[in-house]
Amino acid sequence: MAMEKRQQHQCYGAGPKPTFRFAKHWAVLLVSILPILNTGLAFDYGDALKKSLLYFESQRSGRLPYNQRVTWRHHSGLTDGLEQGVDLVGGYYDAGDHVKFGLPMAFTVTMLSWTVIEFQHQIAVAGELEHALEAIKWGTDYFIKAHTSPNVLWAEVGDGDTDHYCWQRPEDMTTSRQAYRIDENNPGSDLAGETAAAMAAASIVFKKTNPHYSHLLLHHAQQLFEFGDKYRGKYDENMGVVKSYYASGSGYKDELLWGALWLYKATDNEKYLEYVINNAHCFGGTGWAMAEFSWDVKYAGLQIMAAKLLVEEKHREHGDTLEQYRSKAEHYLCSCLNKNNGTNVNRTPGGLLHIRQWNNMQYVSTAAFLLTVYSDFLLNSNQKLKCHGGSVDPEEILGFAKSQVDYILGSNPMNMSYLVGYGPKYPARVHHRGASIVSYRENKGFIGCTQGYDNWYGREEPNPNVLVGALVGGPDCQDNFTDQRSNYMQTEACTYNTAPLVGVFAKLLQMEGQKSHDNHNQPLVASY
């Protein structure tokens, strides 16, 4: 099991594999008729939203609060950082193990914050804003602790190799809790840039409700960005322990641009915008045309954020560069929509975007989020998306994002929800240590490292604890899914899978509510 996290990260730059033209045509046909076939399926996006936020409580490390809603979890990792003389208690476990990896945790918090920035009203109307803010703050509180001085950021607690040889509850952990850091002598511009982005984005979220905290986050974000920019290097080259798990395949230049743009949004300070403009070409911001957006590769998200600046008069002087960003942003969107010339994202026969076989759902959720955000942007600015295959109106873009979400929730050949705990059928044997072993609250008897493998890992029975709101890795390129604990390529869930969906669920809930309201107000028409 030591290799369970050796994910698609090593495949950066490798495009989706070609499919036979016949299969492609059938995929397109199926996508076009799916909405017709599934009109009888009604999804409760409000329930999906509520459950997606519950998931982050399952992934908490540290001392759990009095209002913890996921009651099968208990305190864990209470001595994290002790060996190094620093308090690193808190934060999130990234997936089904107990390592606290800084890069995916930071991306998770950036996406949760972006979600609230874009869809705060919709989340609030659904009654889930407080939970969304709690999910963000659980991460940012940890980042404040981890950033112990201007040029020091603690990047990881625990290590994947020893962690993956054990199968035990987080409350029973006996594995190494050694902490690793980046600093002037061991730089990590990618990690510093992403953490700066997370804290800058979160500072926007808390600006009105908690201005002191917002200011503190912004202070840390600015220091982290300066550190990452001044002492440049890839974090995995200076911290070998992470290389097999979350190696930075795209390098650090995308994170520096990403961090700078979030700092510009948070401060309105021109120096950050100038950084994004002046480094657009040499850092690949206007060069890379991507077909994915993930914890590793930030270009598509960066390009979409930059493209949205074009509608503001004050950015006219940078119009040429921002147009180049927009061109690359729209390449990503058009490739998701199957409207580029030969460089489209593959789809399964059931219509799901398919990038890689390992944890493919992470790419689906980020795509659904970016499509939804850009659809709103086009609608509000009275524009259309221009693709090689013709122009696309905002409604069609949102419709495709909805089709991906509906696939996740059960509109798929397996008739299964890949959001755990949602609907009548969902993965019951998620690859997750805590969920697969009897709850600590029910049985406080110590369960050892190999005892978990011997007595719990191989069980055929469903997990005793339901990991509500987790988005698992999902089906393969033919829509097949095997619900086995050992099938970690498909049954492991990650925080950055679920995070982008929070806002999309809220948006779709609003859309369904509006549709219902419009139908209710339709005038009666007599028929003969």
Set down the secondary structure blueprint.
Elements: H1 21-37, H2 45-58, E1 100-101, H3 102-125, H4 129-146, E2 153-157, H5 160-164, E3 179-182, H6 189-205, H7 211-230, H8 235-238, H9 243-246, H10 253-267, H11 270-278, H12 299-308, H13 319-336, E4 346-347, E5 353-354, H14 361-380, E6 385-387, E7 390-392, H15 394-409, H16 433-436, H17 449-457, H18 488-491, H19 495-498, H20 501-520
Antiparallel strand pairs: 1-2, 2-3, 4-5, 6-7
Pfam families: Glyco_hydro_9 (PF00759)
Catalytic activity: Endohydrolysis of (1->4)-beta-D-glucosidic linkages in cellulose, lichenin and cereal beta-D-glucans
GO molecular function: cellulase activity
What do these coordinates show?
The protein is mainly alpha-helical and 528 residues long. The chain has 20 helices and 7 strands. It has helices at residues 21-37, 45-58, 102-125, 129-146, 160-164, 189-205, 211-230, 235-238, 243-246, 253-267, 270-278, 299-308, 319-336, 361-380, 394-409, 433-436, 449-457, 488-491, 495-498, 501-520; strands at 100-101, 153-157, 179-182, 346-347, 353-354, 385-387, 390-392. It has a 3-stranded antiparallel β-sheet with strand order 1-2-3. The termini are far apart. Residues 1-40 and 523-528 have low confidence and may be disordered.
